[in-house]
Every structure is written in C-alpha cells, then in structure tokens.
Amino acid sequence: MKIKNQTLFYVNSLPVNIDIDLDQQNGIYLLTGENGVGKSSLLNHFKIHRSLFLEKKCAFMDQFPLTPINEIRVKDVLDLFEDGIADFDKARALSLFNRYGLDYIIDRSISLLSGGENQLLKFIFLLGQEADIYFLDEPLQYIDEKRLALLLEDIKKLSYSKCLLIVEHRSSLFENLELAQIQMQRNEQEIIVSGI
Amino acid sequence: MEFDFVRILLAFFSGYFLTVSGSLAQLSTNNKLASSSTLGFDGVGVLCILAAQSLISFFSVNLSIENLSLLIFGSIFVFIIIVIKFKKSSSDISKNMNKIILIGLGFNLFIGGVFSIIQFLFIALNYEFPTGIWFGNFKQFEIETLYLFGVLFLVSFVLVWRMSKKLSFLALGPDFAKGLNIDVSKVLRGSLLVSFFLTGLVVSYFGVFSFIGLIFPHILRSIGFFKYSMKNELIIGSVFAGVFLSTIDFLCYHFTFFGAEVPVGMVCSVVGSFTLLALLIQRQSIK
Q: Which residues from A are below 8 Å from B162, CB to CB?
C-alpha cells in the first residue's frame, strides 16, 4: 500500500499529510511520534478505510482496554469470534492462553480482568485472526517482564510471514528486530506521516 | 377473574419494546446508566401527547388523543428517516456519543418544563389536560393498536435477531468492534433509531413508564443466562420484561386502591427506583 502526499483526515483541525509505503509482505513498521500527534487516530482511520489496503486483510489491536457493558466472559467472546469472524482460529487462541499462562481467565468476566490481562487478551484475539497486515497500538503496555519476552518473541515470529505496523513509544524494546520506521511529526500547519 | 387479552398483549409488547430500547441505548452509548430517557426519546413521546391535546383542545381535531399522538410521532419519525437519508453523514457517530447524551438529557429536562407550563395553562384556561401521561397505563386502546403493535413486535424481533451478532461485538466497545470490520457508525445509527422508535411508540400512545428501559437490562444482567450474552438479553430477556409488565398491569387492574386503578407506570417508577438502588448497592458489596 502506498500513500503519496495525501491528506486523508484531520487531527485537532490540522491536516494529516501521509507519505508512506507499506509494500512489504512481511516485517515490522514501527510508528513513533509524540503524545497526541494522532498515531491512534491514524490507525482508527485505517480501520474505517480498509480499501486503502486493496484486497489485503487487516487485523487491529487497540490501545484502550475492552470495556463490555455486561459481564461477558472470555470464553463467551471466544465463541463469538468463532461464530462471527471468518478465519478466526480458536484452537490457536486457546494455545496462546496456555503459552502466556492465562488459562485461568477463560471463565472470568472481562470486566474483572486487570490491565495486563486485558491487554494480553486483546493480543490473543489479534493473533487468532488470519490477516495480511496486523496493526498494533501500544501492544506492550501493562505487560509484566516475563510475558513481555514471550510477546516480543511472538511478534518477531509473526513478522517473518506477515506485515505488522506497531505504535510504540519504547522503540528500544525492538532494537533486536529488523524494522522500518514511520514517524508522525507535527508543525504549525500540518502533521506529517513519513518513513525514516 | 376476567382476562382482557388485548390489554395483556399490549402491555407485553410495550414491556418488550421499552426493554429492547433500553438495552440498545446502553449498548449504543457504551454506558450502563444510559436509557431512552437520558437520550431524550421519552421527551419526544410526551411532546407528541402535548401537541395532540393542544390540537384537540384548540382546533377540535376529531381523533382520540392516543391516535393523534401516535400519528404525530409517526410523522416525526418518518421526517427523521428522510433527513438521515438525504443528509448522509460521514462523521464517526461513536465519537459524538457524549454530545448526544447531553442533548438528550437537556431535551428531556426541557420537555419537563414545557409540560409543567402547558399543564398550568390548560388548567387555568379550563381545558382538559392529560394529567395521566406522566404515569403510563393501558386503560385506553383500540383493537387496531394491537394489530399495529403485533406487527411491530415481529419486525423488531427479527431486526434485533439479525443485528445481535454485531451488537454483541459492539457491547465490547466501539473501537474494538471497528477493528473487526463492523461498520460501527451504521450499527449505532440503526440502534439509536430503533430505540427511539420503540420508546416513542409506547410513550406517545400509553404515556411514560419510567425506569423500565434502564432497570430491566440491569435485572437481566444479574441473571446468569442473560449476563454473559447480549443476544440473550436483547432477544429473550426482553420477552421476560414484556411478561413482567403485563403481569404488573394485570395486578393493577384487578387490585385497585379504594376503587381507583393504580397506573402501572407509577408502580414502575417506584419499584424501578428502589430496584436500581438495590442493584447498585449489591454490586458495590460484591466488588
């Protein structure tokens, strides 16, 4: 996917001018920028305008926790995914619960999960989906050190065959990985999204 | 003991509509304390009743207040649909929910004020005023109303069934649902329209039934079968709410207070407010 010098949306009345290539079949693009520059808004825009990626399937992981209005349990959501989302691999998702030591939350209501458990749950839902491009918005927040290492390992494995766009402030966490960088910078007239 | 089946069915349909409306309001706003009242939908129904009474009193329109009020509401709804169709908005409605709630709350408060002024004027000028609308009841109806409500029950049942999967994902949060390629703006618009229509329909014809749309979804979510599944809450839970309201109305009809029938809307207000307090206290003590 290439977007050449286009303004696709606005953040706080500033036009977001995008000039990026996401044409790799696999690998990691790290999206960085100061707080409030619009990184999450960019991902939100991609969620709604998937036609930008032509025929490629996209999967998203938000930075915000899941906030159900009822007491839905993790296993109920897994059933929902199995029933409602094409190409969702429930067996893979269940194996990830085991890998991260989270089997105990499967019967638990999502509203009772801690921040870290909620974050890992979203990551598992993401990896359970079969997609061409994965968008992750601050996937490593709230995660303990032991599970952080596992998550980075899984991100690395996924990047061998898929394209990942990751929003993350702590680029040092990815220093052992090969990645391309995309920066969002703000000036008085506009916000520029470009590769480094 | 006599059974007025038409009245029982109308109370059932109304309970179903109000509960579905309440669940959809909470889903759409991702707010457990939202209801069709906080979104101003009750207010539109009351406005229709006031407009109908004014037309009858000042212009001698030869229709019952219930039918005229329903007609006015139907016209408002059709007008809103036309405006939405012509004014195709690309804005993300999920980001404007707080604004919608504030406007709805403000509108409801405004209607409360308008109601008081019009009531005062009508009584001062010796015109008949529908004092009973603030507490809904099922005393006045026609058989044609049953056919209308019956058809709308079937339509809304099928519509909610078809939307239930998307609504279940929406219940996890609008941003999460967007990530699953669900057109959240479209689903939200549809949910709010259905919620508005169902509430306006009941209120414009039968009057206000406070708390049903707010409380019943909460009561359902305290029961295992409903609390883990938005689909069960919307489709089956609302049927239970309909049965509950028709039962309460049946009791109000047969057990009068010194010969006067207590409006079922009054019972809902009193019982509903205490139930809400009890549920909130119970949830606090569990945490």
A: none
Q: Within the 128-167 window of chain A, which residues sit less than 8 Å (CB to CB) from chain B?
A: none
Q: Tell me whether residues A44 and B178 touch, CB distance under 8 A.
A: yes
* CB A134 within 8 Å of CB A165: yes
Residue B287, domain member (yes or no): no
Q: Is B239 exposed, middle or buried (0-12, 13-18, 19+ CB in 10 A)?
A: middle
Is A48 part of the contact surface with chain B (CB cutoff 8 Å)? Answer: yes
Strand order in the sheet with A14-21: A2-11, A14-21, A191-195, A179-186, A27-33, A163-167, A133-137, A58-61
Q: Can you give the pTM of this predicted structure?
A: 0.91
- In sequence order, the β-bridge partners of residue A137 are A167
Q: Which CATH number fits domain A2-195: 3.30.450.20, 1.10.1740.10, 3.40.50.300, 3.90.550.10?
A: 3.40.50.300
CATH number, position B151? 1.10.3470.10
Interface predicted TM-score (ipTM) of this complex, two decimals: 0.91
Residue B160, domain member (yes or no): yes
- The reply to whether B147 falls in a domain is yes
Which of B31, B179, B228 is closest, CB to CB, to A73? B228
Neighboring chain B residues of A50 at a CB cutoff of 8 Å: 181
- Chosen for mutation from A8, A69, A87 (greatest number of chain B CBs closer than 10 Å) is A69
Q: What is the pLDDT along chain B (287 residues), one digit of tens a residue?
A: 667 899 999 999 999 999 999 999 999 998 888 888 889 999 999 999 999 999 998 898 899 999 999 999 999 999 999 998 887 666 677 778 888 888 998 998 899 899 889 888 888 988 877 777 778 889 888 889 999 999 999 999 999 999 999 999 999 999 999 999 999 999 999 999 999 999 999 999 999 998 889 989 998 998 889 999 999 999 999 999 999 999 999 999 998 888 888 889 889 888 888 888 887 787 777 65
Structural domain total, chain B: 1
Its domain, for residue B131, covers: 5-281
